[in-house]
Design brief:
Strand content: 5-15%
Number of helices: 16
Distance between the termini: 10 Å
CATH architecture of the largest domain: 3-Layer(aba) Sandwich
CATH topology of the largest domain: Aspartate Aminotransferase, domain 2
CATH superfamily of the largest domain: Type I PLP-dependent aspartate aminotransferase-like (Major domain)
Number of strands: 15
Bound molecules: D-serine
Radius of gyration: 22 Å
Length: 415
Amino acid sequence: MLESHLSALEGFDREVVQAVRMELERERTRINLIASENYASLAVLEAQGSILTNKYAEGYPGKRYYSGCEPVDMAESLAIERAKELFGCEYANVQPHAGAQANMAAYLTALQPGETVLAMDLRCGGHLTHGSPANFSGQFYRAVHYGVDRRTEMLDYDAIAKLAEVERPRLIVAGASAYPRALDFEAFRRIADSVEAKLMVDMAHFGGLVVGGVHPDPVPHSDFVTGTTHKTMRGPRGGFVLTKDEHGAALDAAVFPGAQGGPLMHVIAAKAVCFKEAMAPEFKAYQETIVANARALCDKMASEGFRIVSGGTETHLFLIDLTQQQISGRQAQDVLESVGITANMNEIPYDDTPPTVTRGIRLGTPAVTTRGMKPEHMDALGGLISRALKNMNDDSVLDWVRAEARDLIGNFPLY
Ligand code: DSN
């Protein structure tokens, strides 16, 4: 909650109050281009900070293991019904604590341990939970990966089909956390059908774009769709899974007791608020502006001489390859942070550097769009990023960029 709502905490734990105050100041004064972050509304924050945090409610509405669950049943039923209406799906589970748990639940429903999952390579834009050896998904299942075409840096659906034919996966995963292009779910469905696999789409990043009609809709083509509520959806930290009625009971059992214990009822109530916000007409306009902003910022960076991975973007994010500039992603992240612009280093396709160094940065526009930025502001923003990256050792230029960045974001108040 904001500083004005911290009176009880203020009297008890000033150190934690200080951390909250510092974060509020940081969020207000810095330009956030982390593609997976956003600013939740006060309504979402109030629901998430509510006394629903006190209730244990293992099970599902009407089928709990503890008594006294009528109020939280109401909140969870609202979240489920709104998710179904919003995404046009038959069945929704809103209990996963985050996207990773949503993916775990879908795997538990669709796969037996040791079976094969075919998903996007982390180094080409996939996610840890898409079969990385460092993650449960790569340890409990046999994970094989498709990448992007080395020349176009885009998915090659014929190559994925051939790989599926050889590997015969039981589950194919579509979706990414650092891929700037729209996904072709009809093609993924055809590939899955050709090898009798199930199809899971991880729309953690682009779920909001789907609601806004600016990204293809995975629901009609998928057996499972996993998502998060805190990225483009602009709600509380959390995950959800959508599926067909035929998989509903198995999915519920996979979430609880399969992967989780008591659900976070305060977060589930905030998910209900998030889904209600996403039904408003303004949400569609917001998603359209996110994508328009990403295109405008991407075009500006290209015009400044930066190489854009795959040559552009169709989503809320894009990747810059910094090889020509002879700086690493980490150096770029650090210099941008020093001037008040927050972004993350990111591997580019077939990156040969460690993930703590990288050759690229990922820039996303959901958060700045929430603050009210429009495509006409992207020229100034891109100019500041470019000046900082091209003058990393010139303190006077960096001082100037820092002051300009603070002025720019000052025009878009937060909270
Ligand atoms: N950490 C998220 C991202 O930044 O894409 C994915 O889980």
